[in-house]
Amino acid sequence: MSQITLEDLYEKGIKMHHITNTAYPLTPGSFMRYKVTDAREIKKLLKEDIEKLTALSLYVHVPFCQSRCKFCEYAVVSGNDAEKKEEYVQALLKELDMYKDIIGDKKILGFDMGGGTPTQLETDQIKRITDRLHQNFNFDPATEMSIETTPVIAARDFDKIKALNDMGYKRISMGVQTINDRLLEAFGREGNRSIYEQAVENIRRAGFDKFNIDLMYGFLDQNMEDFKTTLDYTIDKLIPEYITLYRNRYKGTKIAKEAEGVTLDKVNGQYKEAHRILNAAGYEAPYGKNTFSKLAGDYGTSDYLTKRVIEGLPYVGMGLGAQSFGHQYLAYNEGASTKTLQNYFDKIERGEFPIQDIYPLPESEAIAKMVSVAFYFAFVDLEQFKARFGIDFEEYFKDEIAFLTERGLIEMKDGKMVVTEAGVEQVGGVIPMFYSPESREELMKIKKIF
Predict the structure, then answer these.
(1) What are the phi and psi torsion angles at 221 (to 5°)?
(2) Which end of the chain is more exposed for a tag (fewer CB within 10 A), N or C?
(3) Are 25 and 286 in contact (CB under 8 A)?
(4) What is the fold of 1-30+364-450?
(5) Model confidence over 165-176: pLDDT tens digits?
(6) What CA–CA distance (Å, rounded) separates 10 from 143?
(7) Of all helices (H) and strands (E), which one includes residue 46?
(8) pLDDT digit string (tens) for 28-52?
């Protein structure tokens, strides 16, 4: 391998800031050299890896939406596939059963049902999935289940939202993204203030007191006033416990080409103003963290995400396109690339794990994956890192820490590597410092953002 200086790596990361984010690896082809394809070998790999665990989290993906938003990068189906909800539920239940024997009685410390839009399913379908999860797996009594919905469904179907709370979902997340009518139309989203406010009323009446709203920034045609208006409205009128800010990542979306017109100064400016406004309104988060919370001592994220980010707790994803990150493997279910159901159905029907790609990872890649995700919270917990890998973080990344500390981009305090305000604003250059040697090489060879 060629010798890449940290300065070169940092500068390249800044230039490619739209892709050097918490998502790792860099491209769908990054780990192909590790790929396992034989169904029997895949099952053996899963069994051996999960046997090493004492606890993990679960994620279930529901790929149905009213329509695919133009900024969406996730496994969402459309066309004829959108009518196959019951067939999908039947297949998903079989996948849950496949994992039952492998996971056994290991503690489940986090669970999210996401999408897509889980509440596109009928109430009975969601209940059958939830019941099967509890029948098959050993949920810790303290584990808080989280689920996602949309403003339109929450506004129009109170009975479904109430049923979710009755099933044991105590945290609910709703994507508003923006209240700007022009942007909503451009992105293909349905929404208005009347819908948002009725949705909130129903969510509260259903009994939810842990309610998150997602907002997005970093769009080409979204100016600062657009963004501030959405923030102010969410704070003053919708009043959730948590607000999560998502920077549009562009990769894999219908508007990917617009990324070239979105400057780093713009996204940094929008985040900085949002941080100021939210903190002033009582929503707390360290600079650089995406989720802001009004509840003291509460990170605001689901148990699944909190433990995934801070502890590197392994998780198994089930459903179309779902990602899993085990003790030392990374996997994506069928549909991650095609966004279609048939391959997922076919493998389930054959009694195979419906995995599109699975990679047993060398330690350097597992480390890079965990640390990249940790930037979602803008810190790395050194004790949790050592518990996960048995490695001293400060020794392992001695040169990288020195490089970043000298430039005021990180600081080591209270058992954490904390990203400074300057580091957050240049985070595209900071994150690659923790890439594997192979991913550093790959980043240096990338010529275009997408």
Answers:
(1) -100, 20
(2) N
(3) no
(4) Arc Repressor Mutant, subunit A (1.10.10)
(5) 999 999 999 999
(6) 39
(7) helix 39-51
(8) 899 999 999 999 999 999 999 999 9
- Which residues does 55 contact at the CB level (< 8 Å), separation at least 6? 106, 107, 108, 109, 140, 313
Ranges 152-166, 241-255, 323-337: which has the least confidence: 241-255
Q: Distance of CA 416 to CAs 296, 304, 370, 406, Å?
A: 20, 21, 14, 17
CATH 3.80.30.20 intervals, the chain: 34-307
> Does residue 88 contact residue 341 with C-beta atoms inside 8 Å?
yes
In 301-354, which ranges are E strands?
A: 315-318, 323-325, 329-333
Instruction: Read off the pLDDT of residues 290-329 as tens digits, 9 standing for 90 and up.
Output: 999 999 999 999 999 999 999 999 999 999 999 999 999 9
Strand, coil or helix: 358: strand
pLDDT in tens, 367-394: 999 999 999 999 999 999 999 999 999 9
Query: Residue with structure tokens 């009582």?
Result: 282
Nearest to 187 by CA among 71, 76, 78: 71
CATH fold group of domain 34-307:
pyruvate-formate lyase- activating enzyme (3.80.30)
The residues pairing with 211 across neighbouring beta strands, listed in sequence order, are 172
The boundaries of every CATH 1.10.10 domain in the chain are: 1-30+364-450
Say yes or no to pLDDT of 70 above 60: no
Q: Six-digit token pair at 291?
A: 């989720």
**CA pair distance 213, 175, nearest whole angstrom:** 6
pLDDT of residue 110: 98
